[in-house]
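Thread: "does anyone have the structure for this chain?"

Original post by V.I.:
We have the sequence but no experimental structure in hand. Need at least a predicted one for the grant figures.
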Amino acid sequence: MKRFDRLIVLAAVIITAAFVIINVIPESKDGDVRLHNVEISRAVRVLTDTGEMPDPAQYKTITGIYPQTGDNSFYDSPNEYVIREINGKLYRIEYSEIPQTNGRLSLNVTAAFFALFTIGLLLWLRQTVIKPFDRISELPYELAKGGLSVPLKESRSRYFGRFIWGLDMLREKLEQSKQSELELQKEKKTMLMSLSHDIKTPLSAIKLSAKALERGLYPETEKQRETARLIAKNADDVEKLVNEIMHANSEDIIRFGVKNGEFYISSVIDRIKMYYSDKLSGTEFTVDNCSDCILSGDPDRLAEVLQNIIENAIKYGDGHYIRIGFSDEEDCRLISVTNSGCTLPENELAHIFDSFWRGSNIGTQKGSGLGLSICRSLMAKMNGDVYAEISGGDMRVTLVCRKG
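Reply from O.Q.:
Generated one for you, tokens below.
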């Protein structure tokens, strides 16, 4: 901001210096006499060629042309004049010098207009572009430091108003995510403490029963069998509690906020088409035509699901083609993403939506095994579904979306 202000001051100084140069430096005398010298030369040429007296009214600087009559008054004139000999006869050509004030005035007016335009443009840029941008220039740094509590003031700038609004939404989302993470950590610690306490009881019983068997405290066969059944029961209880911990952790990882509502399918498909048409420049990427309709769900989450599926198609397909197709089934719109070059064995297809599962075809591709699991969770929260099939070397993942 300060640098731009210095630029405005510099522009003002340069403009002022230009005005000084235009108005203070004296004009050249050669510039004053140039016009009447030219016109005198033209008049002399006319007299020489035609012998006829030129009309002074045709010239801007010549006020009169007088031939010598033998009178001594020929050389007496209050006006500026020159004597020329033409065809053996003398002529007095009177002229007046035209001052250059009109030219200087025009130059000043032009320079003033340019100065006002330049200063006005710089001030307009300062108010509409530089100042709003200066307000938000520190926001990414503050967000990175965790400063999420202070909202951004609204701006009516046509250039940055929507941008500031979007940044404020991002700040709110990050703040909500931070609060959700704190609550999640609190819930997780509470749950782990509770389950840890519950696990201690069956573990203690198992240890006591095992020690009793080890020391031969139960010589009777029936008593030994009863102790073994007790150990097995307590082991089942421990296994159940461990499964609850694993399930809770899995649910925590894919916990997303879904705001269900109604939206047009075109609003999501257009976003996907615009993004991947440029990204998939080396792949045949096609999106079938479909009639627009209203879907029930969260458009942002549906776009996220489609992105996850297309990213998988890019990673695990052969890059020949990716197609998005549409069909209708009862009160649902089906959106299918098909990619060529599927190398996943069919016997592994049933596991692709499991958390942390990765197929045998991953090769060197990095990943967490959560992408499709997240897709299934999001579609379930939008009252939809997702399934996959392999046909003719193609992988097809289909989303079942409820119509509004």
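V.I.: this helps a lot. The radius of gyration is 46 Å.
O.Q.: and The chain has three domains: 29-99, 174-253, 261-402.
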